[in-house]
Amino acid sequence: MNVTGQTAHARWRIDIDAEGHEIVSDEPANLGGADTGASPFALVLAGLASCTATTLRMYADRKNWAPVSIRVELELTLDGEERRIHRKVLVRGAPNAEGLGRLRDIVERTPVTLALKPGFEITTVLDAAPSAAEESLDEALEESFPASDPISPP
To answer: How far is the CA of 87 from the CAs of 66, 113, 127, 129, in angstroms?
Structure first.
């Protein structure tokens, strides 16, 4: 694996070549950058999201589960010396509660998770995502019965 980073003309911009793939890193404007790319910590989170989703998808494929969709949401908190990552993983298509339980075990042992754990506290919530039909029903109910509609007395 080869990755190189090179300073650019813009103050905090770094042009990265990650195995032939061009990536731009920069700091946000409030930190003096031009916000032309992801911040260094956003790139760390991107690697964790990618590894998490890929590892779980590989497992689901090996188990021949019907199409599985995985969404990983990450939030980083930096508080002095404390570094915390909260990870929320939503899985659509896992066959049952036992399958979700197995994915909960695996998510804690993905390669990037293991690499980051010595420097970050990582908490994870992994749940089944609602099915597309359930989401459609929820949207239809919200349109039919908006929360702002007053309840009429009988």
So the answer is: 24, 10, 11, 15
Helical axes 40-62 vs 97-107, angle rounded to 10°: 140
Backbone torsion region of residue 12, taken as left when φ is above 0, otherwise alpha when ψ lies between -120 and 50, otherwise beta: alpha
94 residue type, one letter: A
59 vs 105, 106, 125, CA distance in Å? 11, 9, 18
DSSP state of 122: E
* pLDDT tens profile 92-134: 988 899 999 999 999 999 999 999 999 999 999 999 887 665 5
CA distances 57 to 96, 115, 151, Å, are 15, 20, 44
Contact in structure between 67 and 94 (CB atoms under 8 Å): no
Tokens, residue 66: 């019907």
